[in-house]
Amino acid sequence: METYYQPPSAVALKKLILYCLFIGNIVGIVWIWWTYSNYYILNPGGGDIYIALGRIAGLISEYFILVQLVLIGRVMWIERLYGFDKLNRLHRWIGYSIGGTLLAHPILLTIGYAESYGVSFWAQLSDFLANRDGVFLAYFALMIFALVILLSLPFNRKNLRYETWYFIHLLMYVAIGLALNHQLGTADLIQTGPLYYWYALNFIVFGAVLLYRFVRPLARFAWHRFTVTRVVQENKDTWSLYVNGRHLEKFAFEAGQYANLNILAKGMWFTHPFSLSAPYDGASLRFSIKNAGDYTSKIQHVQPGTRVIIDGPLGRFVARNAVRDKYLFIAGGIGITPIRAMIEPLAAQQKDVVLLYTAKTEHDLVFWQELEDIKKQYGTLTIHYVLSAPTTAGHETGRLDKNKIIRLVPDFYEREAFLCGPTTMMEAMAQHLKELGFPKKHIHYEKFSF
After folding, report:
1. Does 2.60.120.200 match the CATH number of domain 319-444?
2. Which pLDDT tens digit goes with each residue over 245-286?
3. Which of 65, 108, 112, 435 is the most exposed place for a label (fewest CB within 10 A)?
4. Which CATH architecture has domain 225-314?
5. Exposure string (b/e) for 327-344, b if CB count within 10 Å is 16 or more?
6. Which residue in 296, 344, 337 sits closest to 420, CA to CA?
């Protein structure tokens, strides 16, 4: 099985290039604005300053929309630098932030031209919508942006099904197209140089998104011909998909990573992220999925022979990022899937590994027999099961807290910690470790909430 490795120097260089590109484009946009809105900036009376500010708000909005596309475009070499968790968090906060500039653009321009022509705000707005080319469609795009931002706020997002959220976000491509059509050849982009620059910027970003989000997965699908060979029930509500294909030894991934799956079966075409739950065995890839309702309830009914589009591997939740040579894994429920994949190769290398596995009951444990077999075979794995429900099997009971961590893993401070489970559980465990004086840089986890 091939894998990849980026030396620290290569990582630092790539990050530096990205930062330079990001800042360089902002400088270029400000230069365009200053050069071609110079009259309005230097003659701020009669509403001209509002026109100038409205123009820069439009340019900055479009630029950060393109940044948003890059952040969620599954551009693999960027994702490998920062990880999905950080990119998604940045994407979310930029999304909230650009709402202000998106609204400021039409409001400032309307105020500026209303003062310039001596008419009311609403009369000027009506004139824009009725007589300016592309403005009505740009207004429609603004409504789409506002809808997506509103539904992405935490109190709304938590009540949305993943499929609903996914479909609504697809409308963003329509909105971006409408906004771009409104911008090209107008205001600061009317001159040849800035116009070509704007074309190039959009072409590069959309090209990268098209390549990594659509072309690359389809090309890999055509090459590997990923096919479900069997579906295995792991416990009462968890199922594993075994996927075969051609040249799987060329599908490079590291234990702990995940991939986005499109299962080509009726009602299952939405893309969903699932972790690889075992290292490559020379024959198949294994994805283990808990039935959490809706989409995941259909996994058990997937038939052998069903084709699958796999976009990945993705994620930085890998042992290679560890600095220390001893490991502490804390898994909650189905969060055992990537950890199960990571433990086996580490145990085979005779690494000192401790696993704290939390679940409600013994019946909720996944891969317990596989874990026990690894423990028996290699002898370097220690497992403590922590069950929230009473048990007669001699396992720990109650919640995993700081006292249990100290008692069960007295040398925890010497280890590298990897956490996987529900978001609240991971945050709680990370906080416990920090309160115990455990350095943040040695704690690893990724969130996959949308």
Report:
1. no
2. 998 888 878 888 899 899 998 878 778 889 999 988 778 899
3. 435
4. Beta Barrel (2.40)
5. bbbbbbbbbbbbbbbbbb
6. 337
